[in-house]
Amino acid sequence: MSLPVGRIEIDEAPARRCSRCGAAVEETRHTRTDYVVGYYLLHTGPIAEATVRRGDDEAPTSYLRLLDVVEVVSCPRCFGEPEVQRSWAAFGGAAGGF
Ligand SMILES: [Zn+2]
């Protein structure tokens, strides 16, 4: 008796690379009880203040608009660097939220 052979699926997605050291990073892998963080991704970009006015009798509301989306990838090794922690905090990222 032999076990059925499973199909091997190859992930064709292009590999992400760490923005700091250029190391290829892997997707976060989940196991039943734990997970392994492959990389940290910061979704950011240049912002500009914009105003929106809903009605003639309403005061314009200003908000921050994301002009361009920039993805900053950090491998777990670089993410532990104080320098990286500082820059993520400066972006208003969730550096302390993990
Ligand atoms: Zn790195």
Topology:
Elements (H helix, E strand, L loop, with lengths): L15 E2 L6 E2 L3 E2 L4 E2 L3 E5 L2 E6 L8 E6 L3 E5 L1 H4 L2 H9 L8
Antiparallel strand pairs: 1-2, 3-4, 5-8, 6-7
Bound molecules: zinc ion.
The site of zinc ion has 7 residues, from helix 1.
Task: Throw out a few tags for this protein.
98 residues; alpha+beta; two-stranded antiparallel sheet; 2 helices; 8 strands; 31% strand; elongated; binds zinc ion
User: Which structural class is indicated by helix and strand composition?
Assistant: alpha+beta
**Which strand order do you get reading across the main beta sheet?**
1-2
Mean pLDDT: 80
Biggest sheet character: 2 strands, antiparallel
Q: Helix-strand pattern, N to C?
A: EEEEEEEEHH
Strand content: 25-35%
N- and C-termini, Cα separation = 47 Å
- Helical segment tally? 2
What low-confidence regions span 5 or more consecutive residues with pLDDT below 50? none
Which ligands does the model contain, each kind named once?
zinc ion
| Total count of strands | 8
How would you describe the shape?
Answer: elongated
Radius of gyration: 21 Å
Helix content: 10-25%
Overall number of structural domains: 1
